[in-house]
Amino acid sequence: MVGGVGFTTDVGLFNLLRFAGDPGLLEDKPLTAKAISVLVATIVTYFGNRHWTWRDRPRRSLRREGLLFFGFNLVGMAIALACLAVSHYALGLSSPLADNISANGFGLVLGTSFRFWAYRTYVFSPSPSP
């Protein structure tokens, strides 16, 4: 559920920033639009993960948890930005469909896989066994 809300936030905001209006606010800056959309989605998913998905996990230092969460999200964002940059700039695939497939298809799937593993392993890790 949290992932779905984060996905909708990320993809929706990316497309609004790029393509809403004539021209879109960040029509010629796909990497900036993606970075902003990931940042907003990160804030949404942090609260959803902390208070719903991983609510049964013990709370450690809020500072440590937040730094790890946002740090791992930076890595996930870098993965999505790399996919978008290769597609848009290196391959010249710059249509709205191509940008969405590279950033919100390949990039988001790879980044989300990494983030889920990192959250479960490091950020919201279970209590050590006695």
Descriptive report:
- This protein is mainly α and 130 residues long.
- It has one domain (2-123).
- Helices cover 76% and strands 0% of the residues.
- The protein contains 4 helices and no strands.
- The chain has helices at residues 2-19, 30-53, 62-90, 96-123.
- Helix 1 (2-19) packs antiparallel against helix 4.
- The protein is elongated and about 50 Å long.
- The mean pLDDT is 87.
Helices, by number, come to: 4
In sequence order, what are the helices and strands, one letter per element? HHHH
Shape descriptor reads: elongated
Task: Report the end-to-end length measured between terminal Cα atoms.
Answer: 32 Å
Helix content: over 70%
The portion of residues forming beta strands comes to under 5%
Structural class: mainly alpha
The major β-sheet equals:
none
The structural domain count equals 1
Radius of gyration: 16 Å
Number of strands: 0
Uncertain runs: none
Quaternary structure: single chain
Mean pLDDT: 87
What is the gist of this entry?
This protein is mainly α and 130 residues long.
Q: Keywords, please?
A:
single chain, 130 residues, mainly alpha, 4 helices
SSE topology:
Elements: H1 2-19, H2 30-53, H3 62-90, H4 96-123
Helix pairs in contact: 1-2, 1-4, 2-3, 3-4
